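Replying to the earlier thread about multi-chain prediction with a worked example.

Input:
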Amino acid sequence: MAVDMSYYLLLSAAVFCTGVFGVLTRRNALVFLMSVELMLNAANINLVAFAWHYGNLTGQVFALFTLAVAAAEVAVGIGIILVLYRNFDDVDVTEATTMRW
Amino acid sequence: MAGVFDLTPAIAALPFASFVIALVVGYTAPRLLPKGGAIPGIIATGVSLALSAWLAVTVAGGETYNETLYTWIPTDGAAVEFSLGVLIDPLSALMLVIVSLIAFLVHVFSLGYMNDEGETGLPRYYAGLGLFSASMLAFVFASNLLMAFMFFELVGLCSYLLIGFWFRDPGPASAAKKAFLVTRFGDYFFLVGVVATVATFGTTRFLGTEAAPGFPHLAEQVLAGEATVTTFLGLGAEAWFAVIGLLILGGVIGKSAQFPLHTWLPDAMEGPTPVSALIHAATMVAAGVYLVARIYGFYALLPTVLAVIAFVGGFTALFAASMAVVKREIKQVLAYSTISQYGYIMLGLGAGGYVAGTFHLLTHAVFKALLFLGAGSVIIAMHHDEDMWKMGGLKDKLPVTYYTFLAGSLALAGIVPFAGFWSKDEVLYEALAHGLGNSPLLLGAYAMGLVAVFFTGFYTFRMVALTFHGEPRTDTAESPHGVGWAVKAPLVVLGVLATTVGLLNMTPVAKLTGAHIEYLHEWLSGPAATELTSVHHYANPDTGLLHDFAGYAVGTAGLGETTLALAGAAVSLALALAGAGLAWRLYAVPDPAEHTDRLGSAKTVLYNNYYQDEYQVWLAEHVTVPLARVADKFDQGVIDGVVNGVSSVSLFVGSRARRIQNAVVTDNAALLTLGLVALLAALGIAGGWF
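Result:
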């Protein structure tokens, strides 16, 4: 059963927009991280879908790399959140506004 | 024999090395430097002297040298090549010998004048002397106008450093500044002249090759209609060349202390006396007139400029000599006499007497260095008091100084057979003969030069009489300080030269007897390779540049050349003797009185040097300062205003725009997203998606 390419793209766009929405509206840093994961995975869907479409494994391999990068990013992100919590007693991103002009 | 020519740069490099040694060792390890740096300087200038003499011998053997050593900006791509090179022809070889000889003697003399007197800061002094010698020697053998200009500026810098040697006193410090500024004023014109030369001829070489001639020869070809060059300001070739010639002459007038830029030289006497001898009498001041001689092939094409040179020279000769008459300090008399004597050299060159001018340059360098060193010896003896009215009767106490000084004075006054007589007489003869020929204007310059002869005799023997004759007028003069061998030896060498160097070119005798004894004339005729810078090319009566372009011809007023030469010599000798005799009668008495009151109101004018300083200061204060103020207003208001306005706009915009960066991550992300969307939209519109 072959699913039409446009469905994958629509799904990917929907997931990506969900991620962007999360980043723009939520204040909790953990939700931020999750939203970023969503956006990364939206990209992954695209990679895998096109790889399948063209019968080429490169996209799939690339998706694996993206996963590894996402894992590393989460590790760094969690570290930042820990420091944020220590300094501001909160993980609300709108509180940490000392790094401006 | 290419060997010695390859060593030419060493003539300048050695004194430069002594400068470096004096500076580096003198300030890091003064104990390693005996005599405060004098020894390296003496060795360096001594070797330079030997090399110069060797060069002169080689040139006498008929060889010359004209090479580019280092190309600074090569021709490929650029229209003009800038390079450093060496030009050794009879003129530069002769000048190298003079400069290195005097530099050597002055270094030796400094042992007696500076070291024995316990001066401090000697490494600085010898470093200055070394750098000066190096720059001056390099200036002399420079092969193009730009290189000459660079070293011209360097000698000016050294002059500034050495005049201001005792910079803790206000006098020397301000004299140094004055010398620097006044000569810089002239050099400014010189620089514009160099640029004009480059723009016009595309080369600044003094002497080129057949394919690429130097600029004087190129100018000659242009005026003869054999070549063309670009001229500016809508002037024809001859008028434009005259402009270039006058611009370069600006530098000459500043450096050689000609009217009206002579005011710095008397003040420069604030420097140590050996420096005055080396820089402000014998060599650096000679740089200006040497430059005229160096590019004589260019000036000889321009009758207008030659007339200006002759008139400036004649006027300066008279003007400075009249001021020297009333001076009280021995060095001031010598300073004004230096200005006056350089006036004679200019007169000689302007009147078409290339050999005469060069000859007077040579003899003057010798006898004026001698007089300054003699004055230095007197000043040591007088415990650094320079007032001649406090001296008197030093004749018996300083016999060596007296006799050598007398030889120098006789040479300066132009008494036969001392050096100055022959050269000054030749200068005057050239002016007279060419004046009687086709250029009656020169007769005016000749008349001024002739009157100056009387004043020269007068002030010279007033100085000798007041210093050495009569009764001692102070206790110091009663029992003067002795002087050592380092003072006496250079005096003796120069004294012998001042007596004999005039025999090089005894034109009147040659004319009378028909003997070929005009050695300098033959020397400057030179070998065929440098034909274009030879006196033959310049002044041949039938085919020389002066004849073809400047229209100079020898006129004799129906007397014949020999009679005219002898008559001229007799008149100038008579005037010199009259001046000297008058001074002798007035001042060589046991107890001389000041006779300046007899001058009446002229006395005040002379004491104030014709108010030259006053009017120049007035010009500076009432013309230059307001002008500078307007320029400053324009700079601060308009130029800086625009710059500040632009920057304040961007500062304001920045201070508003940075509010966007409020450190809220959400807002940053929103901006990022909006930016991406905007970018996509823009790309889409540009790419025609919609």
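The two ends of chain B are 86 Å apart (CA to CA).

Feel free to reuse this layout for your own posts.
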